[in-house]
Specification:
Radius of gyration: 29 Å
Number of helices: 11
Largest sheet: 2 strands, antiparallel
Distance between the termini: 68 Å
Shape: extended
Number of domains: 2
Strand order of the largest sheet: 1-4
Number of strands: 6
Length: 355
C-alpha cells in the first residue's frame, strides 16, 4: 500500500474498522446495501436538511399508510364471517332517495346493502355485519398507524393522550367526509351509468383511501407539530403573557415554553446522535470498500488504477476519520442531553401523578 494510506496510525486504522457483517450470506447482502444507502442518504441530508426531512416524512407516511391498508385487507378476509348473522340486515344510512329522469337513486354516507350469492343465500360480505367488520378492521389499523406515525414519521414527543384523542377525532371526521363523498358518486356510476365493477372499486379506493391519506398528512402536521415552530409559538405566548403582567398566565406560559423547549432539545439531540453515528459508519464502510478495490487492483497488477485508488483511499480515510472524531465528540454530548430531558420529563410526570 502507498505511503499515503500507510500514513494512518494503528489507532486510526482501529477506528476505521467496520462492524463485522453477519455470517449469514443473505443477511450480509442486505447489510451491505443498507450501509451503502446510509452513506448516500446522510450525505444528501447534510447538504439538503429541509428537503431530506420532507422526503423522510413523506416516505414513512406512505409506507405506514399502505402497510395498515394491507392489515385491513387481511383482517377483512375472515372477520366478516364472524358477523355473518348480521349480513341479512341492510345498513344504508341516511337513506335519501332522489330521481334523475326515470331512475330512482339512493344517497347514503354508509351504504351496505344485503348481498346474495348465486344460489340465493345471503352473502356474508354485505349488510350490517360487513359494515361492523370493516369498521373494526379500520380502527385496529389506526391503532397501529398512530404510534408508528407519531414515533417514526414525525418523531413527536408531545402528549400521547392528547394526540391520540385528536387523531381519533380526525379519523372519524375524515371517514365521514370520504364516505359522504363516495355516497354522492356511487349512485351515478353504479345505478345510473352502470360502470364496470373494477372501475367502481378503483374509484372507491381513490376516494376513500387516497383522499383520506392526503387529508391525514396535513392533520398529522397539526397533531404532531414541528418542534421548532412549537417552540417559537410558545416563546411568543410567554412574551405576550409577560406583557400582560398576569402572574398565573406567565406561570402557565412559562411551563408550556419549558416543555416545548425540552421537546426541541430532545428532538435535535436524537437527530444529531443518529446522524453522527450513521455518517461515521457509512464513511467507514466506504473507506473499507475502497481499500478492498485497491487490494484487488494491486493483485491484478493494474498500476494506473492502483495509483488512482490509493489517492481515493487517502481522501476517504481522512473523511472517515473526521466523521469518527466528530461522532466521538458529539455523540456523548447528545446522549447526555437526551438522558437529561428524559429524566426531566419523567420527573414532571411523576410530580403531576403525585399531586
Amino acid at each position: 500500500m502507498s505511503n499515503q494510506v500507510q500514513a494512518l496510525t494503528a489507532a486510526d486504522e482501529a477506528k476505521l474498522q467496520p462492524k463485522p457483517l453477519s455470517q449469514n450470506g443473505f443477511v450480509a447482502f442486505w447489510q451491505k446495501i443498507w450501509r451503502w444507502w446510509q452513506g448516500v442518504w446522510y450525505g444528501f441530508a447534510e447538504k439538503h436538511p429541509k428537503l431530506s426531512n420532507l422526503i423522510y416524512m413523506v416516505f414513512f407516511f406512505i409506507v405506514f399508510s399502505y402497510g395498515v391498508t394491507i392489515w385491513q385487507l387481511l383482517v377483512m378476509l375472515f372477520l366478516p364471517y364472524a358477523f355473518a348473522g348480521l349480513a341479512e340486515i341492510e345498513f344504508i344510512w341516511p337513506a335519501v332517495n332522489f330521481t334523475i329522469g326515470d331512475t330512482e337513486l339512493t344517497y347514503a354516507i354508509f351504504n351496505e346493502p344485503v348481498r346474495y350469492l348465486e344460489d340465493g343465500s345471503v352473502n356474508p360480505l354485505g349488510g350490517l355485519g360487513n359494515f361492523i367488520a370493516f369498521e373494526i378492521a379500520v380502527f385496529t389499523a389506526q391503532c397501529i398507524n398512530m404510534p408508528l406515525q407519531r414515533n417514526i414519521t414525525y418523531r413527536s414527543h408531545g402528549n400521547p393522550v392528547w394526540q391520540a384523542m385528536w387523531y381519533f377525532i380526525g379519523w372519524v371526521g375524515v371517514s365521514i367526509f370520504t364516505n359522504a363523498l363516495w355516497g354522492i358518486v356511487y349512485p351515478f356510476i353504479d345505478t345510473l351509468w352502470g360502470w364496470p365493477d373494477f372501475v367502481i372499486t378503483l374509484i372507491k379506493t381513490v376516494i376513500t383511501g387516497g383522499v383520506s391519506m392526503v387529508v391525514f398528512f396535513f392533520i398529522f402536521l397539526v397533531i404532531f407539530p414541528d418542534v421548532n415552530k412549537t417552540e417559537a409559538k410558545r416563546k411568543a405566548a410567554l412574551e405576550a403573557a409577560k406583557e400582560s403582567g398576569d402572574a398565573s398566565k406567565i406561570a402557565k406560559a412559562q411551563e408550556q415554553y419549558d416543555i416545548a423547549l425540552e421537546h426541541k432539545r430532545r428532538f435535535d439531540a436524537e437527530k444529531s446522535y443518529a446522524s453522527v453515528n450513521s455518517i461515521a459508519e457509512a464513511k467507514i464502510n466506504g473507506y473499507n470498500g475502497m481499500k478492498n478495490k485497491l487490494e484487488k487492483a494491486k493483485a491484478a497488477g493494474k498500476a494506473e488504477e492502483v495509483k488512482e485508488l490509493e489517492a481515493m483511499c487517502a481522501k476517504m480515510a481522512a473523511a472517515a476519520l473526521e466523521a469518527v472524531n466528530t461522532r466521538d465528540e458529539v455523540a456523548p454530548k447528545e446522549k447526555a442531553i437526551i438522558d437529561e430531558v428524559k429524566a426531566s420529563q419523567a420527573a414532571r410526570k411523576a410530580a403531576k401523578k403525585a399531586a
